[in-house]
Amino acid sequence: MKESENNTLNYHVSVDCAIFGFDFSKLNVILMERNFAYNGVEYNDLKLPGDLVRKDEDLDTAASRVLKELTGLENIYLKQFAAIGTPNRLKRFERDMEWLRRIGHPEEVVVTVAYYSLINIERDRIDKSGLPADARWHPVADIKELSFDHMDILTDALITLRNELRSNPIGFELLPPKFTLSQLQKLYEVILGTELDKRNFRKKVSNMPYVVPINEKESGVSHKPARYYIFSKKVYEKTRKNSFDFSV
Amino acid sequence: MKESENNTLNYHVSVDCAIFGFDFSKLNVILMERNFAYNGVEYNDLKLPGDLVRKDEDLDTAASRVLKELTGLENIYLKQFAAIGTPNRLKRFERDMEWLRRIGHPEEVVVTVAYYSLINIERDRIDKSGLPADARWHPVADIKELSFDHMDILTDALITLRNELRSNPIGFELLPPKFTLSQLQKLYEVILGTELDKRNFRKKVSNMPYVVPINEKESGVSHKPARYYIFSKKVYEKTRKNSFDFSV
């Protein structure tokens, strides 16, 4: 800090979380429903889950708390990706300001720290029934507008997820422990927003020693049963050491 | 935000910057000298440059301002990498608390948003003479302790830089527009903290179409003059599109 503090300000600090889940066909995110009337108009809109950071609470702890209160889950992939302090970021929509007044929320500047989380919907049994009444999974591709600046935060989260997926094996967080190569390809296609050539994709995967075939195939499927694979974090970390390669 | 705000808190928000520069032999960072006496003892310690965020100022704007006030530079690679709100993060050392009281700094919680910046020392002419009297380049490898939690922030910045260097072509920000392959290799060795095999390194580089040889060689050197290369952002972005490869 400099030796002056003119024009500085008190803030409230919040965390907001983009919690992603993959259902083998599309990428989804948990949104909170907000219903209230304002000026005779009824509003039904959506926002990202989040909360103000509490006294003596670390930022990561606050984000973990939001995730746990919502899903019951702990020790889930959760990564801070941005702090946003744009002046007036909560005042974009008149209805948001009205809502803040109603819940007794401070109208001053709120700096928010944004997190994204990756959940395996199947493994973690977080389907509709596992969430509170006002929370629901929404296909990311269908979301057009959110409260406050949450649409910007969601877009940033998605860009971060895409970039991370290109350079780190985080996609496996969204898959069950064993998966087929078709499921893995679909995951990449959905998040990168592009179709991938099956032959090229399999060639790439064959160069990843940490994607390990196991002696088990799908059962109860109408097509030819595919082999299951697992992701070996141990092998990955060995491979990764001292390597660098910023593009193919 | 939830519909309660029990136990929440007012914060001050600051930015802190790890500004890295490479001098062809080692990685350096700009630190601010702090000299003052406390309880009869004279303290000379070092901290990262930073400042409180001002009213109506965006976080990125505040970081750019700190960078510009210090170096005179604008439009430099500057990336937010963490927000830190650990309770009591400013109270680790008694001398820090005394210093805060002297400069009239709020003793309440300060959430800081950390940035790292990459500067080409040669190109940007930011040597010792270009910095204020209390600021100086320090070899990163020599730094053992900093004020507050700044050592943690610097360590995090370095980890982020290493990870980014593995997957993105950011190293070129630290080099002059034209560079030799030996200089490029040295940069990677210094930041990754490891020696690289020359033959393997050149093989990797030959697979990077965006590292382009130009028709110019070193002059005035005692060894065999080496060819210069440039980094083509345009070629990189074309190559990068739709590619993914999270390890070699």
Explain the overall architecture.
The structure is a homodimer of 248-residue chains. The first copy, chain A, has helices at residues 59-71, 94-102, 150-167, 181-192, 198-206, 233-240; strands at 12-22, 27-38, 41-47, 50-52, 77-84, 110-119, 135-139, 211-217, 227-231. Chain A is of the alpha+beta class and 248 residues long. Chain A has 2 domains: 12-170, Nucleoside Triphosphate Pyrophosphohydrolase (Alpha-Beta Complex); 177-240, Winged helix-like DNA-binding domain superfamily/Winged helix DNA-binding domain (Arc Repressor Mutant, subunit A, Orthogonal Bundle). In chain A, strands 1, 2, 3, 4, 5, 6 and 7 form a 7-stranded mixed beta sheet that branches. In chain A, strand 1 (12-22) and strand 2 (27-38) form a beta hairpin. Chain A is elongated and about 60 Å long. Chain A starts with 11 loop residues before the first strand and ends in an 8-residue tail after the last helix. Mean pLDDT of chain A is 86; it is low at 1-6. Chains A and B meet through strand 1, strand 4, strand 5, strand 6 and helix 3 of A and strand 1, strand 4, strand 5, strand 6 and helix 3 of B.
